[in-house]
């Protein structure tokens, strides 16, 4: 019985050694029949083989996927569009030139040097970065705000003129941080201190500084008082009316003139809300030349020019002009014209010089202050905002 039991196993082993099944053989079950001498019935048993694992097919192995086709639509020499499998030659040359002309530079990192002293580590002190002039100016104007005099802050906020602001302070109508202040020289910071005038809060943010050149017409006075109907400042009513629309959330500037022109004089006058700028330009120490064109009645002779150049007494001071010149006659202007340049700018100085020479002033117009000349295309009553270069021409360095 043992021989019969072992015979199927030996048969299967010998069968597999002599005739191995290939991997693609579709037969999965092998049926064998053996006969034994002790038994007439054959012994049947089944041998089942596991099917081979399928190998996943990769698109890379397929020849159809080995080459990816990218269509390039180019325009041929005949001007027609065509499809090709290679990129245009111009593109390949351009990429090659760009790679050759702009090679990537390798930045070599410097190794930190070892400290000479073993006991203490080396401390490298880096110098402070140097800021540009524009950056320093922006910091000084918008960030750094040192305390200022109370009267100056009220004038800059548009409450009133500096003189009127001092009167309000003396009258006890101004409070700082809940206490009445009667000293105009008190230093305050509008961004930190709480300031009230007649029960109205002064805004923390001051209005920006503005600078204008105005062609003053005849009949207007250089006064910022609200009672004056024909004031130079009233020529800016349209500008002030549209201020909130152009600058939302920003207080309106309080405008005033730099210096004065009498009611009959026309021409250039500067209007601003910057008190320091106005003080600098109008102060006699600035010595800014001011050029006037005056039209006189009658003929002008050499003795008249000599008398004007010798000067005269104005407000108790002997004033001498910088230059006097007789301008050529024009067909449309029958009267004689004089160009007179002064630098002191005292009240009615040019009119007094002409009057002292025995001439009568018919009209007077200012055309230049410092290096800034009144634009020829600026009409009467019109204004233009000054640029930074024009402010420098006026001698202002902010």
UniProtKB/TrEMBL annotation:
Residues 113-127 have a biased composition (Low complexity). It comes from the Eukaryota. It comes from Brassica campestris (Field mustard). Residues 148-207 form the RNA-binding S4 domain. GO terms for biological process: pseudouridine synthesis; rRNA processing. GO terms for molecular function: pseudouridine synthase activity; RNA binding. The keyword Transcription does not apply. This is RNA-binding S4 domain-containing protein. SUPFAM superfamilies: Alpha-L RNA-binding motif, Pseudouridine synthase.
């Amino acid at each position: 019985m043992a021989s019969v039991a072992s015979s199927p196993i030996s048969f299967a082993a010998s069968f597999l050694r002599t005739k191995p099944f290939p991997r693609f053989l579709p037969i999965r079950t092998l049926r064998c029949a053996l006969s034994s001498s002790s038994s007439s019935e054959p012994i049947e048993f089944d041998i089942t083989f596991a099917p081979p694992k399928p190998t996943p097919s990769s698109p890379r192995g397929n020849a159809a996927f080995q080459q990816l086709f990218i269509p390039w639509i180019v325009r041929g020499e005949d001007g027609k569009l065509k499809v090709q499998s290679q990129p245009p030659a111009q593109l390949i040359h351009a990429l090659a030139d760009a790679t050759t002309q702009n090679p990537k530079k390798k930045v070599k990192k410097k190794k930190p040097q070892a400290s000479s002293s073993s006991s203490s580590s080396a401390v490298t002190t880096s110098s402070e970065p140097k800021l540009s002039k524009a950056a320093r100016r922006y910091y000084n104007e918008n960030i750094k705000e040192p305390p200022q005099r109370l009267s100056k802050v009220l004038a800059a906020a548009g409450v009133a003129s500096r003189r009127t602001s001092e009167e309000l302070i003396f009258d006890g109508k101004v409070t700082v941080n809940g206490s009445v202040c009667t000293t105009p020289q008190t230093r305050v910071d509008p961004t930190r201190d709480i300031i009230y005038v007649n029960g109205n809060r002064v805004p923390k943010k001051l209005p920006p500084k503005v600078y204008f050149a105005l062609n003053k017409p005849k009949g207007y006075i250089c006064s910022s008082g609200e009672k004056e109907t024909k004031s130079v400042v009233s020529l800016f009513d349209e500008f002030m009316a549209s201020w909130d629309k152009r600058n939302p959330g920003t207080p309106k500037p309080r405008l005033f003139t730099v210096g004065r022109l009498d009611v009959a004089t026309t021409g250039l006058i500067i209007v601003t809300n910057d008190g320091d700028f106005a003080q600098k330009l109008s102060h006699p120490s600035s010595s800014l030349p001011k050029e006037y064109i005056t039209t006189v009645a009658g003929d002008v002779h050499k003795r008249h020019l000599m008398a004007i150049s010798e000067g005269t007494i104005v407000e108790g001071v002997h004033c001498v002009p910088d230059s006097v010149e007789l301008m050529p006659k024009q067909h449309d202007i029958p009267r004689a014209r004089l160009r007179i340049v002064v630098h002191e700018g005292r009240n009615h100085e040019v009119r007094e010089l002409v009057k002292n020479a025995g001439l009568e002033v018919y009209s007077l117009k200012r055309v230049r202050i410092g290096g800034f000349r009144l634009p020829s295309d600026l009409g009467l009553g019109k204004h233009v905002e000054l640029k930074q270069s024009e402010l420098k021409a006026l001698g202002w360095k902010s």
